[in-house]
Amino acid sequence: MLGFQPPAIGDEEIAAVAETLRSGWLTTGPRAAELERRMAEYLEAEHVLALASGTAALHLALVALGVGPGDEVVTTTITWPATVNVILHSGATPVFVDVLEGDLNIDPGLAAGAVTERTKAIVPVDLAGQPADLDPLLELGVPLVEDAAHAAESWYRGRKVGSIADVTCFSLYATKNIAAGEGGLIATNRDEVAQAVRDLRLMRRGDGSRYDITVPGYKANLSDVLAAIALCQLDKAERHAEIRRRQFAAYDEAVAELPGITPLTRDDRDVHALHLYVVRVDPESAGATRDEFQRALAEENIATSIHFLPVHKLTLYRERFPDQPPLPVAERAGDEILSLPLSPAHSDDDIADAVAALRRVHERFTG
Ligand SMILES: Cc1ncc(COP(=O)(O)O)c(C=O)c1O
Each residue of 171-224: pLDDT tens digit? Predict the structure, then answer.
């Protein structure tokens, strides 16, 4: 089976973990601090804070901004459920808006219409590595918490993702472009938000035995063992990006000749992080549904995935918000999207195999 998104871990990461273990730093220590310093430079952000997961980053961002019960948070439905779950954790109410047809990112016009006096934050997602359209969202004057789990390498209109929103949240999960296995980062230029996150991520504040606390912390700090892996991955980011560019180009060339198989749009004013290669399968012209394509590719030993099913249609949210109106663009997309294998751990031949399998399956369904 050709894996969907295997991690690209090499001898450097293995050596860095061994060295960290020998150093005695199992928990947060000098490597986490170095990761914060280097990521702040890379992301062009004033402050970067290392956290236990992307989910924790999103959650603490909302808490640090004071989002709580009675508040509303406007967000997209085409995302990993964590984006929305943390809104529930904060005590606020998620307000789902539909997405744009081309890149499946939050529709800024609809987001504007969803803002009320109770809106305390907007959480867009940079799906697959394409930044959401941030300028019209910033103009709404509501704090922006950008879910950039897919977008560590992205730029929006000449500005680095991580330097734009009030808070930008990244993930170091096993499949991500900079992968530590687990982990997350918060980037912000707001001093008081950075200080609040610092207080919230650990249980304690102060030194030595005379500790004191001012807030109930979440214990969401990052271990040095994982920070050491992330630092190696950051060193390799450009080399890995070069491989992803070749893989994207191979898929682009292939799907251009396959009626009914269309990649999500990428805005050439931006730099796309090339995190996921997502296509839409139009059953009319591709001769079969997304699910049929996914099954047929699995039979060809090609693993694929779905990013993402609309969150408002998942059981928790259907039951919690039974009056949720339909979100037609997202709901249709949820039935049509398919993510193809993509990883710097794959060789060009691996991707050629995936392309050949896709061509065979397409020919069978349309022939
Ligand atoms: C869009 C998006 N947001 C948030 C997360 C949560 O990140 P983590 O798994 O590091 O908690 C993920 C993925 O894992 C994601 O894909």
Answer: 999 999 999 999 999 999 999 999 999 999 986 555 667 788 888 999 999 999
Same domain, yes or no: 50 and 171: yes
Asked if the structure places residue 3 within a domain, the reply is no
CB of residue 171 inside a 6 A radius of ligand 1:
yes
End-to-end CA, the chain: 26
Evaluate if pTM is beyond 0.70: yes
* Claim to verify: residue 264 and residue 220 sit in the same structural domain: no
Best residue among 58, 80, 178 to mutate for probing ligand 1's pocket (most ligand atoms within 8 Å of CB) is: 80
CB of 344 sitting under 6 A from ligand 1: no
- Residue 273: inside a domain: yes
Residue 129 identity: G
Per DSSP bridges, beta strands 47-51 and 93-97 are: unpaired
Q: What is the pLDDT of residues 64-102, one digit of tens each?
A: 999 999 999 999 999 999 999 999 999 999 999 999 999
Residue 124 lies in a domain: yes
Tokens standing for residue 148: 């950039």
Q: Is 176 a catalytic residue?
A: yes
Give the distance, in angstroms, between the CA of residue 246 and the centroid of all CA atoms in the same chain.
Answer: 21
Among 4, 55, 342, residue to substitute to test ligand 1 (most atoms within 8 Å of Cβ)? 55
